[in-house]
């Protein structure tokens, strides 16, 4: 038997990308960005870095993760955008890594105001940054990697590696978030979700959620925000052929969309009565369970029959508990 060691031929970027997706459940969502940045050092060695995401139309970060930098770095960076020459170059070359050396020669950079106020103050000499932009949601991700040693610039190979991984960082963190959401939250069947701020601006969005919007709200003025008012937390609203529901998540909101079904057009009380009666309870039993009079159950059920176009409990139960197609 040949005892020679089999060489490892797996591309390091492929290995890293696989780890991003496979670790989605293993890493808590609130720690995922910091973990992914640390792991990225195995593909592109760096001393520190940042990963910021937000809305490109509003030019602000929703999330900002630092690696080996103080939390105050975000405020310092945001306060100096007007004098940061790498930012407009990145926005002109989306999804393409930009090295600060492409923007300013060393002689200028190390004497520049941005170096003195930001990078030099944090021991940063070499910068490689990429902005990925998602056209459908208006969300962007900025990944910047830093080195201290002036004599250790980023190579062309490392630039190519960053170009490959930035897209996956954007998608993997969203994938991980919604995996945990599906596991930890009760949600309507056949729905898709998005996370928005109080103004309805997207923070995260599943592709199917965007599919629903494009089909049901074509030509909307701003594709980066909800095309309808944010539903009251816990309430379901019917929007034509869609239902929408939201729930608070800290200072954000999770919004669910799903195609309307017959029961979605009922009031909460009507649905409560329908589910009780569909379980086989009598009017009296349903009334006792819900805490209303039997006559209330009868009156509501009469209106439900007219709304749904059914004529018996059997037909009603078939809507509540549809049999799978053969």
Automatic annotation (TrEMBL):
- SUPFAM superfamilies per record: C-terminal effector domain of the bipartite response regulators (SSF46894)
One Pfam family name is GerE
Please provide the record's keywords in A-Z order: DNA-binding, Transcription, Transcription regulation
Q: Which GO terms describe its molecular function?
A: DNA binding
Residue span, HTH luxR-type domain: 259-324
Q: Key word Transcription present in the record?
A: yes
Q: Does the keyword Transcription regulation apply?
A: yes
Q: Which GO terms describe its biological process?
A: regulation of DNA-templated transcription
In its UniProt entry, what is this protein called?
LuxR family transcriptional regulator
- Taxonomic lineage per UniProt? Bacteria, Pseudomonadati, Pseudomonadota, Gammaproteobacteria, Nevskiales
